[in-house]
């Protein structure tokens, strides 16, 4: 049957820490400097980003924990039905696909994962960041997680760009003030 390694690994801890860091810096550093947390716009932006970060974290947890889809142990292709798309024939030799490690036949697009030590249905890849294969049963939730992560990253980047532009324009205004310019300092 073959199992998976433990759930808490350094890459998983790193992803959770990165999500937490981006959340904290966006909600407690960028939004307060941009709009202020005492304004309705600031609270709305903090709440929206909190919901986005929670959705990102929840879909990540599901992608980590959900089984990617295993080949049923009793799977045997119907060799008598030539029209059936349930079996796939190897390119060389014309034999049915058989996993030597799991000791059973494999349906189309099923591959053996050497990390998970089992055959996975419609396996895309083994992802170290979720410590799991991306396959038939968790492909959609993995893509939803990636979508939430990209949207949250752009949101945070936009907030920090606005804060940077706001701070740099304030710095330019301060430097243009006659009492704060270097030349006026030496003239007085």
TrEMBL record:
Family: Belongs to the DHHC palmitoyltransferase family.
Top-level division of the source organism's lineage: Eukaryota
Subcellular location: Membrane
This protein's domain notes: The DHHC domain is required for palmitoyltransferase activity.
InterPro entries: Palmitoyltrfase_DHHC, PFA4/ZDH16/20/ERF2-like
Swiss-Prot/TrEMBL keywords: Acyltransferase, Membrane, Transferase, Transmembrane, Transmembrane helix
Catalytic activity field: L-cysteinyl-[protein] + hexadecanoyl-CoA = S-hexadecanoyl-L-cysteinyl-[protein] + CoA
Protein name (record): S-acyltransferase
GO molecular-function terms, A-Z: protein-cysteine S-palmitoyltransferase activity
Membrane topology: Multi-pass membrane protein
GO cellular component: membrane
PROSITE patterns registered for this protein in UniProt: DHHC
Boundaries of every Palmitoyltransferase DHHC domain copy: 95-170
EC number: 2.3.1.225
Residue spans crossing the bilayer: 12-31, 43-63, 141-165
UniProt source species: Zea mays
Pfam family, one: DHHC
């Amino acid at each position: 049957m073959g199992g998976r390694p433990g759930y808490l690994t350094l890459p998983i801890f790193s992803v959770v820490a990165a999500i937490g860091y981006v959340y904290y810096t966006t909600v407690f550093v960028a939004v307060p400097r941009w709009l202020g947390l005492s304004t309705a716009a600031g609270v709305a932006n903090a709440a929206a980003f909190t919901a986005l970060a929670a959705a990102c974290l929840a879909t990540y947890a599901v992608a980590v924990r959900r089984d990617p889809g295993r080949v049923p142990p009793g799977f045997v292709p119907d060799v008598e039905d030539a029209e059936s798309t349930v079996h796939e024939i190897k390119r060389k030799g014309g034999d049915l696909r058989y996993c030597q490690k799991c000791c059973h036949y494999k349906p189309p697009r099923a591959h053996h994962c050497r990390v998970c030590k089992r055959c996975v249905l419609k396996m895309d890849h083994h992802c170290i960041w979720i410590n799991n294969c991306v396959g038939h049963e968790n492909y959609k939730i993995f893509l939803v997680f990636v979508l939430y992560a990209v949207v949250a990253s752009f949101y945070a980047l936009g907030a920090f760009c606005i804060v940077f532009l706001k701070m740099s324009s304030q710095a330019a205004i301060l430097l243009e003030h006659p009492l704060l310019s270097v030349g006026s300092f030496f003239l007085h």
